Amino acid sequence: MLSRYIIPNEVRDRGRIAVRLIWNQGAGFSFRPEGFYGREEELASLLRVCREGKSGVGASIMIFGPPNVGKTSILLKLKHDLQSLTEGTDPPRPFPFYFSFSKILSHPLALSQHFLQEFLWQTLVFLGESPPAAFDAEAMCERLSSFGLTDCRDLLIAHRRFSERGDGLSALVSAISFPFSTGGGIFYPVFLFDDFQYTSKLQGIPDGAILSILRPYIKSGHFPIIISGSSPGHVTSSLKREGLFGTFQLVEVGGLSRHASEALWASLFERRKIEMPVHIQKRAAARLGHVPIYQRMFAEEVSFRSAQVTDEIGFENLYALSITEGQLNRYWREFFENSFPDRLDRARAIKFLKRLVCDRFPLDTFEGALSLLGTSPEDGVRILSALEFKGLLKSDFEQLRFIDDPVLADFLYWAFERGVSGKGSSQVAAAMVQAKLARSAPGEEEIEREKLLATAKELMRRWDCREVPMMLFRFGSFMERFGGKGLLEVVIGMEREPQKMRLPKISSVSTGYRTRRRGPRLDFDLVAYGFLDAEFSEDNLVIWAVDVNGEQTLTAMAVEHFENRCRLLSLEMGLKVRQFQKWILFEGGVDPAALELSSRYDILLTHRSQMRIFLNLFGMEEIGVQAEERKPPETPKGPEPLEFELVLPMKADTEVVAARVAEEVAAYASLDKDSVDRIKMALIEACINAFEHSGAESGKVRLRYVLSPDKIELFVQDEGKGFRAGRTDESRRNRGWGLKLIRELVDDVEIITGEKGTIVRMVKFLDTGKEKEGAGSPGPE
Amino acid sequence: MSYLTVRTRNAGDALVVYIDGYLNSLMGEEVERVVQDSLDAGGRKFLLNFEGTRLINSIGISIIIDIVEKLMERNGMLAFCALSRINRELFQMTGVARYVKVFEREEEALGHIGPSA
User: Fold this and answer.
1) Model confidence pLDDT, tens digit, residues B31-43
2) Which of A47, A150, A479, A717 supports an S-S bond with A759, CB 3.0-4.6 Å?
3) How far away is chain B from the Cα of A184, in angstroms, using its nearest Cα?
4) How far is A686 from chain B (nearest CA, A)?
5) What is the span of the domain harbouring residue A299?
6) How far apart (Å, rounded) are the C-alpha atoms in residues A531 and A543?
7) How confident is the model at residue A24 (pLDDT cuts 50, 70, 90)?
8) Residue A763's pLDDT is what?
9) Above 60 in pLDDT, residue A6?
10) What 8-state DSSP symbol labels residue B105?
11) Where are the domains of chain B?
């Protein structure tokens, strides 16, 4: 049903741009990339994940969000971009395989058949073959075999055998596993699975079976897999069962950015010759939650009624008209009619949602939801799971969260007033306009805050009994050490930082925690609980209360207020001091009094800039980091050299971290790929030498990366007795390449052995004049 | 304890070994073991595919050299494919490239070591 609204059915023939992406049961539709707006951030990180597949590194991502918000468009745009960006590049090229589970194919045999045909067909199209005229799997196999895909025929035979036996599960296993073995040197598959929630509705197949089939491929970490679905609740619980929860990165899709939704207005209005003052456009975009589908429908409404919107009142009237009897009304009415065919269920669901979405009734537990529904438990569970399936309810294990959609809220208001109070549409519309004119739209700040919150949530989900330097939590000491430089510092196992924080394995992070329904309302932005040492005993239980402060300055009053709520919670739960962690994330500055108070109350303070180091530590730098933030704030080629430090524990493979950091540092200098690769290799060798030959007591190797306008200097310092370049016993295994390689890889090497240990200094000169040319195409040897 | 496994594929009578990730001692030894097992079972043709190799260290190179030597002793055939620029340079610097044919693509390499003997 998604396609019906977002993507026009008629194939607009705009030459080559109109890409026919999907072919299924005759219901093909087109996706027009030029009609796609915004989502730069999401797309950039998804693209990166997909392209990493080339080196056999695949990450798994789950996209979720309300119905029709544009998840499918993101996948299709990703498919389009991935193909156009990699056209003509060296093989293997990414082959984005898009598959939607939403088709009404609840029988596993039908699904597996469809899956196979779809895969074969898309593969042929990808390889530049003209698509076959009929749905002939045999013929498609025939053609594919000329590309070296020879296992295909065996697969079809096996599939026929399963079909004859009626063995749906085996058929699914063989069909879904097949794409993972394809590609060879020509392509590598990138999986874009859409409408994944439907996989729970297969006949006679246990819930989560598809994930079980995918499990080894997800675990192998070789395949980029992107799963999209309306609600994460159902899928995340399956993921947890499969032990895959930690491997998935969650991306929530909401409305567009302000900028993108305004661009969308411009194109919609231009096509329909609608004129609307710019300030009303802005207001209208915010009122519609920046959701593209609403914007399209509203534009249609305006042009259908050949109305002109000149002022605020005009807009509000037209909007109210649309939501009470026009396009927006029809959209949600059909949605509810499809989701709840039973009238009584529908009425209950609407009444229930109205109180939550429209009146913002505070509710986040299943028990609370059931009692508010006022039905028998069976009916209640049925209604709730239908809401969840449709993406109106997000359950994060035991916590519930409902969709926050301004248009839905207004629709629910209309449905409620009409159904329960028996008011006429025009009455409702009038009331709505009056209320709306008095209220204003949510600001950008709120959106930023939400983002920070989501990042913190994802972070907490990822820490798994890891040790993190306390300094990262203590804003005071952090400022002291790094405040002066104001640079991105990567800290791993900091020296002279004896205090470390053991981060528990977090079992649950939820939003808006409240103790008991009738007790005092302790409203935190995030509450998490977890267990230290991954042992689920009461003694190891740790509770985190987190607040995100979006104000310009964190005041003493805000800290005091937070502390009060924490005390209540801690009393309520009977927690010991060490079992309770209090954490405030803030965006702006800190009042000195607030800093002092928080250190007295033992509240951890973290600034947004510190968060980035966390992100790096947990390997998720792309989340919440905007594109412009990734660029250096000022040109790094100023007179002052930039200095980065890293301390490595002497453990196997930690040299990879050094290489990774080098990559990030080099990004500051916009170094070309070749130089970066050379620096990385040289560093790896220097680290290994330090580990192997130093015999150091401290078990640490200290690295410094110094970036000047004309060169990058790397210092690798151990505390041992020094390189023994001529030692012969190590050539036992043809070893001893290390130093030789370093000399080849960088421009200058110096080994300084002193009392404090050995320092290897490596220099790579930056060819400032020519580096731009070198970056793109590798020149001759 | 090692959960590290090396991906392999039989292509005709040749064994393609995919070196994914970080070629260090651990990975190198695993590759060596896979090659040794195949040699013991009568395999003679090997292709190391470096397409997924993100990093290589000197110990990894040493082990590759061991493999090269072993195969030369036993009259085996060995080719590399899909080397990134830096990895190709590394093999040149260490002299490995003199003993092993390097190809861009897997099919190309298989075409070379496949048909003859």
Assistant:
1) 999 999 999 999 9
2) A717
3) 8
4) 10
5) 258-310
6) 9
7) very low
8) 92
9) no
10) S
11) 7-113
- Which token pair is A57? 């590194």
Whether residue A335 is found in the same domain as residue A395 = yes
The closest of A125, A101, A89 to A175, measured between CA atoms, is A101
Domain total of chain A? 5
| Residue corresponding to tokens 């009238």 | A343
Classify residue A627: in a domain, yes or no: no
Show residues of chain A in contact with B57, CB under 8 Å. 655, 681, 684-685, 688
pLDDT cut 90: percent of chain A above it: 5
Q: Are A559 and A596 in contact (CB under 8 A)?
A: no
**Separation between Cα atoms, residue A310 and residue B30, nearest integer Å:** 72
| Same structural domain, A239 and A373 | no
Count of other CB atoms within 10 angstroms of residue A431:
15
Rama region for A727: left / alpha / beta (φ>0; ψ in -120 to 50; rest): beta
Average pLDDT over residues A212-241: 78
Contact map slice: A 154-193 vs B, CB within 8 A: 184-185
Q: Are residues A240 and A279 in the same domain?
A: no
Q: H/E element holding A545? A: strand A541-549
Binary contact (A735, B21; C-beta < 8 A):
no
A519 C-beta neighbours (distance < 10 Å), count = 10
Query: Of A410, A442, A474, which residue sits at a domain end?
Result: A442
The answer for residues whose C-beta is within 8 angstroms of residue A201's C-beta and 6 or more apart is: A106
Q: CA triplet A393, A396, A400: central angle to 5 degrees? A: 45
Would residue A23 count as lying in a domain? no
Query: Of the candidates A242, A183, A188, A187, which has an alpha carbon nearest to the alpha carbon of residue A62?
Result: A242
Q: Mark whether A46 and A175 lie in a shared domain.
A: yes
Asked if residue A28 belongs to a domain, the reply is no
Co-location of A350 and A497 in the same domain: no
SS3 A423: coil
Q: Are residues A248 and A267 in the same domain?
A: no
- Check A744 against B93: CB less than 8 A apart: yes
Show residues of chain A in contact with B65, CB under 8 Å. Answer: 734
Quote the CA–CA distance of A362 and A653 in Å, as a whole number: 49
- The answer to whether A40 and A48 have CB atoms below 8 angstroms apart is no
Q: What's the CATH code, domain B7-113?
A: 3.30.750.24
| pLDDT category of residue A362 using cuts at 50, 70 and 90 | low
Quote the minimal CA–CA distance from B42 to chain A in Å: 25
Residue with token string 């080994």: A751
Residue type, A153: R
Phi-psi region of A528 (alpha: psi -120 to 50; beta: other; left: phi over 0): beta
d(CA A338, CA B105): 52
Question: Chain B 51-90, CB below 8 Å of chain A: which residues?
Answer: 51-59, 61-63, 65-66, 81-82, 84-86, 90
Is residue A714 a contact partner of residue A727, using CB atoms and an 8 Å limit? no
Q: What is the pTM of this model?
A: 0.53
Task: Select from A608, A641, A669 the last residue of a domain.
Answer: A608
What proportion of chain A, given as a percentage, has pLDDT over 70?
78
pLDDT tens-digit series, residues B25-83: 888 999 999 999 999 999 999 999 999 898 898 888 889 988 998 888 888 899 999 99
Residue A137 has pLDDT above 90, yes or no: no
ipTM above 0.90, yes or no: no
Whether B54 and A685 lie within 8 Å, measured CB to CB:
no
Q: What is the pLDDT of residue A28?
A: 34
Q: Is residue A158's pLDDT more than 70? A: yes
Q: How far is CA A646 from the centre of its chain?
A: 28
Is A741 close to B105, i.e. CB distance below 8 A?
A: no
Q: Is residue A471 part of a domain?
A: yes
Tokens standing for residue A279: 């300030």
Q: Are residues A223 and A268 in the same domain?
A: no
Query: How far, in Å, are A265, A266, A269, A280, A300 from residue A274 at the CA level?
Result: 10, 9, 5, 13, 10
